């Protein structure tokens, strides 16, 4: 984008500034009451570019690429700029609704613009809106997280259905709406000659889970959340596909209307139900003060897990329709209603149970089994409880209402109890391994509890082998958890080296098993044979050295160059390497001096070849030579592995955590605590655009 101010004058009479600003070579504004700084214009243009991209992904492709919190923050900042410089609002977020219609569908104009609802996020913003109203009778509805529709009826018969689209025109989905039982083909009772009923198509959580289970079983696409599933199902070119999905719908407002016979929003709900529509009446409330509004908000937050479909807030409406009509609308939203949004990264749900998993190192990890809830665009049904001490600290027990958080690149976790289950029996952490029955110990000074049956615990063996064959390790396709469990149970695999003789020993038997055959065994054999040659850093990652992940494995490979040197490295030498701490060095030495581990390695090395690595292979004169960089959040166009590989090619040292020694934090969408810490420490923060700028400047692909 190119911005150019050609002139900037003060008339000297009313402090009005006259300027001619070119934006990408196009005349942008003249006679602004206050000329924005060029950086403000650039920021606003960048925000609008992002919002347009995100809107297209959300409304046209049914595949959002950022979470609600990230989108809301960007949109609010754009509107904030537009409130200070109103001339920017014409093509800005303040006047923007949805996205242009897709060329896959016919489009039709909305007879009455289909506006969005202004969002408010806290009591202060709600109070600012409420206090300006001439009437204090507020009708409160659920804000259903689905896809907006408009259904036009003439003489009671459904004649056309549209999506929101751009708000001015929508996509023709008439045939698809006809497949949804909650949207009547013919209205009942006393109805207007013409009415366009508007509402939300959604998918219940139960139907969503059933759809995904069926899709996974047949190898089809699995949806990320119910909203995506509803959008993808509604915008099908083949109505038969829509009909096969379990879609539901609520109605809540109207567009074009030939005659109104109701005086309030509450009465309109009565009319809708009499015509054959479903509404959210069961969850609706009236409020006449801020205290009542906030009480409803808090109560619905508590009930959110028990509501069978996803919601992301409340809609507050002036109940009197005549007042609604007098108040009118802004460019893109009515003045008489607001959406009081729930926090995007947190939710309240029921803790069904606590199960305990056993990892490859024997650590017992408690896992919360939750009533599924949509948090930040992801349906969460499980969350980590970390360890026994964390359960005690939180005071959680099965049956409690708990607060669940999903932020940044942190997996879902419980952060507190919202409501205790009366007389609940405290959860008792097991003193025996739930898998093998072995003793569980807690070493002095450690919070983790471990199963001591290292050699005989099936969970540890499966965990080790899953890690071994994973993509970042030996990358053996066709050996997932189910296959490993099957082969281990039959005694065909007991350690890593057995994998490389599996087909020779048991190939014929495997072919006769359910789910296998000549081709699948052939493919598995080919994958195993490809894995016999492996790079040093992948080998070091795969063998499961405690504390050694992908990044540390690469550091070791670059520092020593070959496996023998790593196996024989003393602790003092390891500690001298940047990125290897004292605990990590001790774990590496302990691993390679263990008699059992050495026997397993020697046996494995008879089956595979580990390629030496070039010592200090990262470019010393690269554009990022020596820079310590931390990745956090999600980049729209790069996987985490791809971004790390590019940074390392430019000489950077990619680290896992932020410290005072970190030079740069590359932050994508949904960045969390790492970004917060970087901001506190004053560390340089890059967006994806900054990252791509460096790539472009250095001609790196």
Task: Give a brief rundown of this model.
The chain is built from 25 helices and 27 strands.
Summarize this structure as a short list of keywords or feature phrases.
alpha+beta, 27 strands, disordered N terminus, about 700 residues, five-stranded antiparallel β-sheet, about 35% helix
Structural commentary:
The chain is 35% helix and 22% strand. With 701 residues, it is α+β, with helices and mostly antiparallel strands. The chain has a five-stranded mixed β-sheet. Strands 17-16-15-18-19 form a five-stranded antiparallel β-sheet.
Average of pLDDT: 84
Low-confidence stretches: 1-33
State the secondary-structure class: alpha+beta
Q: What portion of the residues fall into strands of 2 or more residues? A: 15-25%
Describe the SSE topology.
Layout: E1 3-10, E2 17-23, E3 26-29, H1 38-60, H2 68-84, E4 107-109, E5 118-120, H3 123-130, E6 138-144, E7 147-154, E8 157-163, E9 169-171, H4 174-177, E10 194-202, H5 205-218, H6 226-234, H7 239-244, E11 248-257, H8 265-275, E12 285-287, H9 290-303, E13 311-318, H10 321-327, E14 337-341, E15 346-358, E16 364-375, E17 378-384, H11 388-394, E18 401-405, E19 413-419, E20 440-441, E21 450-451, H12 458-469, H13 481-489, H14 496-499, H15 502-511, H16 518-530, E22 533-535, H17 536-542, H18 550-560, H19 563-567, H20 571-575, H21 582-593, H22 595-605, E23 609-611, E24 628-632, H23 640-649, E25 653-655, E26 664-667, H24 673-681, E27 684-686, H25 688-697
Parallel strand pairs: 5-14, 22-23, 24-25, 24-26, 26-27
Antiparallel strand pairs: 1-2, 2-3, 4-9, 6-12, 6-13, 7-8, 7-10, 10-11, 13-14, 15-16, 15-18, 16-17, 18-19, 20-21
Helix pairs in contact: 1-2, 12-13, 15-16, 17-18
């Amino acid at each position: 984008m190119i911005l150019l101010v050609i002139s900037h004058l003060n008339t000297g009479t009313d402090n009005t500034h006259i300027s001619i600003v070119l934006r990408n070579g196009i005349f942008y504004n003249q006679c602004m009451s206050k000329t924005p700084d060029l950086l403000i214009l650039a920021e606003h243009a960048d925000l609008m570019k992002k919002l347009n991209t995100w809107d297209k992904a959300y409304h046209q492709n049914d595949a959002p690429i950022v979470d609600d919190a990230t989108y809301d923050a960007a949109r609010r900042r754009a509107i904030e700029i537009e409130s200070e410089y109103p001339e920017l609002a014409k093509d800005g977020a303040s006047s923007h609704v949805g996205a242009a219609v897709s060329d896959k569908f016919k489009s039709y104009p909305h007879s009455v613009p289909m506006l969005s609802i202004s969002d408010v996020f806290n009591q202060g913003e709600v109070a600012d809106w409420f206090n300006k109203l001439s009437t204090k009778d507020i009708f409160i509805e659920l804000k259903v997280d689905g896809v907006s529709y408009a259904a036009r009826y003439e003489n009671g018969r459904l004649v056309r259905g549209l999506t929101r689209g751009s708000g001015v025109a929508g996509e023709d989905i008439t045939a698809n709406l006809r497949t949804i039982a909650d949207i009547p083909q013919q209205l009942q009772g006393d109805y207007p000659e013409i009415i366009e009923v508007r509402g939300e198509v959604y998918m219940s959580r139960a139907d969503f889970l059933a759809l995904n289970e069926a899709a996974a079983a047949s190898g089809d696409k699995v949806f990320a959340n119910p909203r995506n599933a509803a959008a993808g199902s509604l915008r099908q070119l083949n109505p038969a596909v829509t009909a096969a999905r379990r879609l539901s719908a609520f109605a809540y407002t109207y567009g074009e209307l030939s005659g109104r016979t109701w005086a309030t929003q509450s009465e309109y709900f009565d009319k809708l139900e009499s015509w054959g529509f479903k509404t959210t009446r069961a969850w609706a409330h009236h409020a006449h003060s801020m205290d009542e509004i906030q009480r409803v908000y808090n109560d619905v937050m508590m009930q959110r897990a028990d509501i069978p479909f996803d919601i992301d807030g409340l809609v507050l409406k002036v109940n009197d329709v005549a007042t609604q009509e007098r108040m009118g609308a802004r460019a893109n939203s009515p003045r008489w209603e607001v959406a009081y949004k729930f926090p995007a990264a947190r939710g309240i749900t029921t803790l069904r149970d606590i199960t305990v998993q056993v990892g490859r190192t024997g650590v017992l990890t408690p896992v919360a089994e939750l009533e599924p809830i949509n948090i930040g665009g992801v349906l969460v049904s499980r969350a980590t409880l970390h360890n026994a001490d964390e359960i005690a600290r939180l005071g959680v027990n099965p049956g409690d209402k708990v607060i669940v958080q999903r932020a940044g690149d942190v997996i879902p976790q419980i952060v507190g109890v919202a409501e205790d289950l009366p007389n609940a029996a405290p959860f008792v952490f097991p003193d025996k391994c739930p898998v093998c029955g072995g003793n569980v110990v807690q070493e002095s000074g450690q919070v983790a509890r471990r199963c001591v049956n290292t050699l005989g615990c099936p969970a540890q063996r499966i965990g080790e082998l899953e890690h071994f064959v994973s993509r970042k390790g030996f990358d053996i396709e066709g050996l997932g958890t189910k296959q490993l469990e099957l082969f281990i149970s039959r005694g065909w695999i007991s350690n890593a080296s057995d994998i490389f003789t599996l087909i020779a020993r048991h190939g014929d038997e495997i072919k006769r098993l359910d789910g296998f055959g000549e081709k699948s065994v052939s493919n598995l054999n080919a994958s195993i044979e490809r894995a016999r040659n492996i790079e040093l850093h992948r080998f070091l990652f795969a063998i499961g050295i405690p504390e050694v992940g992908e990044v540390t494995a690469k550091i070791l490979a670059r520092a020593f160059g070959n496996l023998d040197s790593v196996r024989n490295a003393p602790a003092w030498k390891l500690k001298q390497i940047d990125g290897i701490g004292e605990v990590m060095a001790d774990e590496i030495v302990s691993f390679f001096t263990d008699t059992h581990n050495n026997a397993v390695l020697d046996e494995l090395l008879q089956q595979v070849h580990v390629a030496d690595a070039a010592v200090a292979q990262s470019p010393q004169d690269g554009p990022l030579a020596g820079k310590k960089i931390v990745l956090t959040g999600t980049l729209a166009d790069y996987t985490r592995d791809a971004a790390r590989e590019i940074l390392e090619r430019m000489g950077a040292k990619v680290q896992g955590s932020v410290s005072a020694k970190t030079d740069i934090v590359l932050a994508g969408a949904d960045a969390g605590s790492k970004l917060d810490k970087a901001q506190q420490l004053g560390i340089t923060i890059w967006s994806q655009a900054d990252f791509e700028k460096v790539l472009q400047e250095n001609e790196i692909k």
